[in-house]
Amino acid sequence: MNQSWWFSPGETTWAISVRLSLAGVFIPEGLQKLTHADILGAGRFAKIGIPWPELFGPFVGVIEMLAGIMFLIGYASRAAAVPIIVIMIVAIISTKIPILLGRSWWIFSLRDLNRYGFLSFTHETRTDWAMLMSAIFMLLSGSGRWSLDARAWRPKFSQQNA
C-alpha cells in the first residue's frame, strides 16, 4: 500500500453520512472525557480497570476529538479511523466482555446492571458495534466525494485521466 492511499477520498458518494455520524459521536464524547474527567475520562477509566487512567483518559479524549473533526471535514478519514477502531475494540473488551461473562474479567471490572449474559452484552454493545463498523467503513472507503480529501485530490485525478 502506498502512502497516498491514506489520503485518497475513495469513490463513495454517501460516505458523508457515516462521517457525520462518527463526528457527531466522537467530538462531544472526546470533549466530555476532558471536561468531565471524573465521570467520563480518567475517573471512569480507573473504575473500569484501564491502566494509567490519568494518562489514557485525556489521551483518548483528544484522539476522539481530533478524529471526529477529521471525519467532519473529510480529511484523512482513513487514518483517523485507525485509532477509533482501536478505541472501540478496547471499549468492547474492557466494558462489554465482563457483561457477557457476568463477572470481572482480566483487569476489567464488572459494572452493576440488572442483567448479564449474551443478550445484555448485545444490548450494551450496540453503539460500540455501530461505531466500530462505521470506522472500518471509513478505513476501507475513504472520505468520499464530498470531503477535503476529494478537493485536494481532484486535480491529481483529472491529470491522471487526461
From TrEMBL:
Protein biosynthesis is among the record's keywords: no
Protein name: DoxX family protein
UniProt superkingdom: Bacteria
Parts of the chain that traverse the membrane: 55-75, 82-109, 129-148
InterPro entries in alphabetical order: DoxX (IPR032808), DoxX-like_oxidoreductase (IPR051907)
Membrane topology summary: Multi-pass membrane protein
UniProt keyword annotations, A-Z: Cell membrane, Membrane, Transmembrane, Transmembrane helix
Family: Belongs to the DoxX family.
PANTHER family: INNER MEMBRANE PROTEIN YPHA-RELATED (PTHR33452:SF1), OXIDOREDUCTASE CATD-RELATED (PTHR33452)
Entry's localization field: Cell membrane
One Pfam match: DoxX
Listed GO CC annotations: plasma membrane
